[in-house]
Amino acid sequence: MAAAYPMKRLGLPEDTAKAAAFLLWDAAFWITGETWSSTAAKQLPVLSRRRRRGVEDLSMRRPSAALVAAASAAVLVVPLVSSASAAPRPGPTYTPYATGLSVGEPSIGYDLKANAAIYGAGKKNVRMTWDDRVRPAKVTVVDATAPTSVTSLDAITFTDQATSRTFVSQLIGACSLSSYSDNAGKNYTPIQGCGAGTLLDHQTLGGGPYTKVPPAGAGLSGYKDAVYYCAQNGFSGTCARSDNGGVTFGAGVPAYNTPANGGTNGGACSEIHGHLRVGPDGTAYLPNKGCGGTPTVGNLTNSEFFGGGPALSVSEDNGASWVVRQVPGAHNQDESDPSVAADKGGLVYFGWEDGTNPSETSFGTTSSARIAVTRDHGKTWSKPYDVSSSLGLHNVQFPEVIGGGPGRAAFSFIGTPGIGDDQHNGFVGAWHLYVATTTDSGKSWKTVDTTPKDPVQRGCISLQGTSNKNATDGNLCKQRNLLDFNDITVDKLGRVLVAYSDGCVGTCVTDVKSASKGAVDMVMRQTTGPLLYAAAVH
User: Fold this and answer.
1) CA 1, CA 7: separation in Å to the nearest integer?
2) Which of 115, 225, 308, 372 could cross-link 290 (Cys pair, CB 3.0–4.6 Å)?
3) Burial zone of 436 (CB within 10 Å; 0-12 exposed, 13-18 middle, 19+ buried)
């Protein structure tokens, strides 16, 4: 009997079970009203293909229970379901993975060539790979620490997916100790680490293609992309560009708060910026949580501006100049950094913590996670979209955005239903990690709680670091365990990966009165649901 099959053996239950599992997977929702044969190419007389006419909008379906119960059967029948009768499609699901690190303020990149995530926290890096032949996928974590990571004030890891080059930056004030790796952290090459005049604090490292009019030195070294290094100096931010793959950098150029950056007071921005990203057309974006504010010296450690709203400092000439472009209708609560990313079609997504403060030294009691899109480098914007309030959330922190294929993006943040000033002791609220996704260019977003039974923090979250301190009273939040940000990336298939720190471990998970002290570094990896690359298949 086995000789009748081209594969010269009889089928096993798991052979057809794998086909059934594929049809159960959300990405196979377009396969509906069909009869599939799972017979190793042996033609069966019962094989048929069925279609029903008159159904225009096909939506999600699920194979029949008989299909799952009898996974060794030769014929798999997929019921036809129209959108009118289908249940709403569930949101994506996610699985948490430990990195073995406990530092806080993580960064993550994804090396497409190695099919591996490079995770950084403090002075350590690890390489993470997943075996998706089992469910849940099994992770392998290997040390990938750069030899130059011997000391650090701030740590940044960035991977340029177009070149599979990973950069590790460790801030030392006037510059950074930095290296790059072209093999997912197996070997590193030390680099200059910064440009002249890009000094002090809160550095960011990013890169991507040049614009259509590249500078004279572009590509001469054999490395095709531009690399940018930016840091804030207590009043503004400066950015330098490298044309040789990060080996050396040119001089820094002011990105905001100088006359060259346009508008009143050069944008009138908070001195703290977020992490730089480059769009597919070579435009560089440096996010800022608050521009258009009023001058103040009340920051205690920096002279800056109070209030205003989230904005992008944009360079359309490969970092030679920068201009500030603010989002209308957005508000700055002066806590978390905002985040920006472009999809493959060039649509730019900008997400932030939206809220207001009554004064320079007092804090608001509510905030929301909002995101807007721009098609013209920040000159005009869509109406900001609130992805958190409908879930009953009243405060948010750590917004992180990543783009995928055209029209697709993800937006992660942590949120709590607690109401009050989350920058002071006494705040009550359990924080969870949320991810919102869009597949229609930001017209709509689906937000899911990825940690429904395991909070990532309880109580207040201190974001009043030494470079962002606005008050000196004795009741400022003492929980500085999570530091300043999370991170987000996407793998080669379009799975979302969020780098976050879990500050609520042990008894904190179930004890509502427990304090948050730890910072267990984790990755939240997408398991099911629409991917950020529409054509990808697991």
Assistant:
1) 12
2) 308
3) buried
Same domain for 415 and 389: yes
Residue 317 lies in a domain: yes
Element (H, E) at 141: strand 138-143
Residues 178, 211 within the same domain: yes
State pLDDT tens for residues 24-75. 555 565 565 566 666 665 544 433 333 333 332 223 334 444 443 443 444 4
Residue that is written with structure tokens 């209708």 in the block: 329
Residue 179 lies in a domain: yes
Cis (ω within 30 of 0) for the bond into 328? no
pLDDT digits (tens, 9 = 90+) for 418-442: 999 999 999 999 999 999 999 999 9
224 Cβ neighbours under 8 A, 6+ residues apart: 162, 163, 209
How far is Cα 438 from Cα 409, in angstroms, rounded to an integer?
Answer: 6
DSSP string, 478-493: ---TTTT--EEEE-TT
Phi-psi region of 499 (alpha: psi -120 to 50; beta: other; left: phi over 0): beta
87 belongs to a structural domain: no
- Domain end among 46, 78, 110: 78
Alpha carbons 347 and 352: distance in angstroms, whole number? 17
CATH number of domain containing 407:
2.130.10.10
Same-domain status, 182 and 323: yes
Co-location of 174 and 273 in the same domain: yes
Looking up tokens 């303020």 gives 105
Task: Say how far residue 87 (Cα) sits from the centre of its chain.
Answer: 29
H-helix or E-strand containing 239?
A: strand 237-242
> Residues 6 or more apart from 86 whose CB is under 8 A from it?
59, 60, 61
**Same domain for 277 and 313:** yes
What is the distance of C-alpha 166 from the center of its chain? 16
Determine phi and psi for 23, rounding to 5 degrees.
-70, -25
Range of the domain at 269: 93-528
Rounded Cα–Cα distance for residues 165 and 111 (Å): 7
* Alpha carbon distance 455, 452 (integer Å): 7
**Helices and strands in the chain: count of H runs, count of E runs:** 2, 33
Report strand pairing: 253-254 vs 409-416.
unpaired
* Residue 95 identity (one-letter amino acid): T
pLDDT at residue 417 above 80? Answer: yes
Q: Are 71 and 117 members of one domain?
A: no
Under DSSP, the state recorded for 514 is P
Residue with tokens 């919102």: 436
Integer distance in angstroms from the first to the last C-alpha of the chain?
Answer: 33
| 212 lies in the same domain as 297 | yes
- Chain position carrying tokens 């922190």: 397
Q: What is the 3-state composition of the chain as percent helix, strand, coil, each rounded to the nearest 5?
A: 5, 35, 60
pTM of the model: 0.85
Please return the burial class of 296, using the count of CB atoms within 10 Å of its CB with bins 0-12, 13-18 and 19+: middle
- Split into its structural domains, the chain has a count of 2
